[in-house]
Specification:
This protein is mainly beta. The chain contains no helices and eleven strands.
Length: about 130
Amino acid sequence: QVQLVESGGGLVQAGGSLRLSCAASGRTFSSYAMGWFRQAPGKEREFVAAISWSGGNRDYADSVKGRFTISRDNPKNTVYLQMNSLKPEDTAVYYCAGRPSFIVTNLRNSETYTSWGQGTQVTVSS
């Protein structure tokens, strides 16, 4: 199991950009699929983006498609979420999550992820 630490959150104006990073410890990171989820106040946690262990498969929520990009650097044990054209409705705590690659079910299902970070706050002002 890997340990995950997010960084890069903050306050940004609408239309701006942020890049979130998720640093993983452990030798198995390169065999993990990784995902980003978010939770806004009073709302349930929702899927944002996910990437397979090799980076060859990526998936995005419709609400962020075309604006957000997920990527990973396996030698650096890090996954990124580049967020452009941010909107106030993107305001949330963003969580990084990982799961072993032998779990082949839907990448969007948060219940299949075995490791979670502590979250980083993203606030987009209008």
